[in-house]
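step: validate -> pass
step: tokenize input -> pass
step: predict -> running
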Amino acid sequence: MPTLTFPKRHTHADVRSREYLTTAEVDRLRQAARRVGRHGLRNDTMILLAYRHGLRVSELIHLRWDQIDLDQGFVHVRRLKRGLPSTHPLTATEIRALRRLKSRAPADAAYVFLSERKGPLTDSSVRKMIAQAGEMAALGFPVQPHQLRHSCGFKLANDKQDTRAIQLFLGHRNIQHTVKYTELAAGRFQDFWRDED
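step: predict -> pass
step: emit ->
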């Protein structure tokens, strides 16, 4: 009897050399996302919030207006996958983008990011939009939404934020999930070698 063989599943390392984007790459991705379809502001704002708050795609598409206080400048982040909820401050850039998005939304819209039919987006539509924006940005590797969450952790670790604070910000129950960002941070080796010229 012939033996069944299954195709080998590609690892992330087979497809891309790293699982995060730099701040400059996120900026390029946001610029490209503004040109994807007819919802440039929505696309750009989704990437901005996913990056700045380390949101999973499911957390992003379920983000509701009642979680956001534009006057006080904060967002209540409800984490999925048993993550810890938290309240994050919003930057002026985020507040401006959200105000513009809200002004274009129906008055009774519950969700922040809406589809053509004015309902919540699906995770597959967000994945497609980000993949398309990644191609347009010519980053040199395929981009997927979870990289924005990793990019947030990587940025905070490189900014020398406390590991425990990063853990709470990203909603990790176990600090081992957070340590990977501090292990990747280039800044931890900053003073290892100095030119002796």
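step: describe -> DSSP finds nine helices and three strands in the chain.
step: cleanup -> pass
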